[in-house]
Amino acid sequence: MRVLEVFGICVVALLALLFAIFFRRRLLMLGGGTIRLQVRTSTMVPGRGWSPGLGQFVGDELRFHKMFSLAIRPKRVLDRRLLTIAERRLPTGPERLTMPGHWVVLRCATGDTQLEIAMAETTVTGFLSWLEAGPPRDPGSSPGRSIFGPRQLEG
Q1: What is the pLDDT along the chain (155 residues), one digit of tens a residue?
Q2: How far apart are the first and last CA of the chain?
Q3: Most distant CA pair in the chain, distance
């Protein structure tokens, strides 16, 4: 009987964890302006290192939230004022196995930092429109900040 109780507790804990993950996803999607995308977190092995998640457009930022995480804060923040698209390509090699067939990989640059993101081809159109819809900018006018990590507090 003791084994059955432990098994039952484990099943309930697993269901609670799954519920929390899906509830978090719903909360992020509640405000609108969200897209499905993948961010390449590691380039050590060619074609690997992709992390699925949700992108949330908030003002001049695209906030990346990992799909299978309980964190409310974004894992990465892309600032549209500093972001440029360096290359657009189709998934190759092992990437084709981890992404749907209609997805596109974008190599983005901001300063010296390179980043690859992947999203559906129809989503790329909206993403590029959002990127170009920002206010006019002079490339040397705004001080750069890293696209990785949390936002720095100003003040």
Answers
A1: 788 899 999 999 999 988 888 887 777 777 778 888 999 877 667 767 888 888 989 888 888 988 888 888 888 888 888 888 989 999 988 888 888 888 999 999 877 788 899 999 999 998 998 888 876 655 544 444 444 444 444 54
A2: 60
A3: 71
Q: Where are the alpha helices (DSSP H) in 1-155?
A: 2-30, 95-98, 121-132
Angle at 22 between CA 75 and CA 53, to 5 degrees: 35
Helices and strands (H, E) in the chain, number of each type:
3, 7
Confidence (pTM): 0.72
Residue 54's beta-bridge partner residues? 36, 65
DSSP state for residue 143 in the 8-state scheme: P
Q: Partners of 88 in the beta sheet?
A: 106
CB neighbourhood size of 39 (10 A): 21
